[in-house]
Design a protein that fits this description.
Elements: E1 2-7, H1 10-17, E2 27-30, E3 37-40, H2 42-45, H3 59-64, E4 68-70, H4 74-88, E5 95-99, E6 102-106, H5 112-129, E7 134-139, H6 142-153, E8 159-161, H7 184-192, H8 198-202, H9 206-224, E9 241-252, H10 255-275, E10 278-289, E11 300-311, H11 314-328, E12 335-347, H12 366-385
Parallel strand pairs: 2-4, 7-8
Antiparallel strand pairs: 1-6, 1-7, 2-3, 5-6, 9-12, 10-11, 10-12
Helix pairs in contact: 10-11
Length: 426
């Protein structure tokens, strides 16, 4: 049996954790650069504001209903996520962290009658020890467990179980669009053939499903029937690429500001690369203006360079990225966004040294050992004391290009100077 534990309105719940006065009140969290709404309390959802809706488009509604709006505080969210996952990991020998706010666990040797109690216990402990509300779905396959989780979100208990050998409760009322793995494209195909509910999908001929929905669609149907087809991944497959991208807080016109931003994005991407214990063989950079602006000249360009030798050494990656900026930059444009991508990833243990490396040093040389040691120290300091504690000069000092975070809450759990202060009431 599988259980999927999903944090409810996670970013909003993290903000409410340190703002109990916002319980039962409308709260929304914005994306990078305060652009779109990426997390909504149930009260905001009831206003009809969609996930991903542009903040400016719904500004009047947010103001009218006195919605408390926060900028994204990813330092806080990542730390709270780690605490939630630490609690979940105690309840099963294996855990698959599916996203920052969601995880699968495998449950063995429990009868169906105890599964609901088991889920209620996990939910209660997470709420007591971390303070985050969760919904839990349990069933015999990962897809059925995800569907049970959807049912749990509307139940009083916050936990739902679809027993191993039973039909899915209310399958005739559940839309296929609510099924894990059925996106917009597949929903459209199914709708065109009159298949709109889960029970209709389960009843489909598997030959027809394989032909029209491909193998991935067939796996979904089989999982809904109780046949496990999607393996449990205790260790997730390594990424094929790492992308670091943000919109600028102001229109950028100078190459100096562009280089600062690209250096900063490259630094973040390299940190992720080392966290995965991988090296990149290629680095790409793209620059673009604001495609939504009708009154300014438009420009977009990108380029990718092959590195002489795969690496995760930040100074080397920054150097290559800035060379690409020199190639791409054009004067006379208002730049809105830069993207840095690291591709051609492979385990750092499997990297082969470059035959024509100018200094002739092997990856096991003292030079590379010093580079790895330096990166380890910098990563440790930035992890311990906050991102950017040790930064590269190429990232700039004032960073006027940085995205807007006008409504950001304190980093309550990762910065000493921003810790919450408890005061005694009289």
């Amino acid at each position: 049996m599988y259980a999927v534990i999903d944090c409810n309105n996670f970013f909003v719940s993290c903000e409410r954790l340190f703002r109990p006065d916002l319980e039962m009140k409308p709260v929304a969290v914005l994306s990078n650069n305060d652009g779109c709404i990426v997390s909504r309390s149930n009260e905001v959802k009831a206003l009809g504001i969609p996930m991903g809706g542009p903040a400016f488009k719904y500004a009047d509604i947010l103001k009218e209903h006195k919605v408390t709006v926060f900028s994204s505080n990813f330092s806080l969210y990542a730390d709270i996520s780690h605490r939630v996952m630490s609690v979940i990991s105690r309840y099963a020998p294996e855990m698959e962290m599916y996203s920052i706010d969601e995880a699968f666990i495998q449950i063995d040797n429990l009868n169906d009658q105890y599964l609901l109690e088991y889920g209620e216990n996990i939910k209660a402990v997470i709420l007591r020890e971390v303070g985050i509300p969760v919904s839990i779905g349990v069933s015999s396959t990962k897809t059925r467990a995800k569907l049970a989780n959807e049912l749990a979100k509307t139940s009083d208990l916050g936990v739902a179980v679809i027993p191993q050998n039973s039909v899915i409760t209310h399958a005739e009322k559940i839309s296929v669009s609510d099924v894990w793995g059925i996106g917009r494209a597949l929903t459209q195909i199914l709708s065109e053939h009159g298949i709109v509910t889960v029970n209709q999908l389960i009843a489909c001929d598997e030959v027809w499903v394989r032909k029209n929905l491909t193998l991935s669609g067939l796996k979904v149907v089989q999982e809904l029937k109780g046949i496990s087809c999607i393996p449990f991944e205790e260790f997730r497959t390594a990424k094929q690429s790492i992308i670091s991208s943000k919109s600028f807080g102001i229109p950028v016109t100078t190459i100096t500001q562009i280089k600062e931003a690209v250096a900063s994005y490259t630094t973040r991407a390299a940190e992720k690369l080392r966290a995965e214990h991988e090296c990149a063989s290629h680095i790409g950079v793209s620059l673009t203006t604001n495609i939504h602006s009708k009154n300014t000249r438009q420009y977009y360009n990108s380029s990718t360079h092959r590195l002489l030798e795969p690496t995760n050494y930040t100074p080397e990656l920054i150097s290559e990225a800035l060379k690409i900026v020199d190639k791409l930059f054009r004067t006379g444009y208002l730049y809105k966004k830069a993207v840095v991508s690291l591709v051609g990833l492979d385990s750092e243990k499997a990297v082969q040294q470059g035959l024509f490396r100018s200094n002739g040093l092997s990856r096991n040389s003292s030079t590379h050992t010093k580079q790895r040691s330096l990166m380890n120290v910098i990563d440790h300091v930035n992890c311990e004391y906050g991102s950017g504690t040790v930064a590269y000069l190429a990232e700039g000092i004032s960073k006027q290009w940085k995205g807007r975070r006008e409504r950001s809450s304190p980093r309550y759990t990762t910065r000493w100077e921003e810790l919450a202060v408890a005061t005694a009431s009289r």
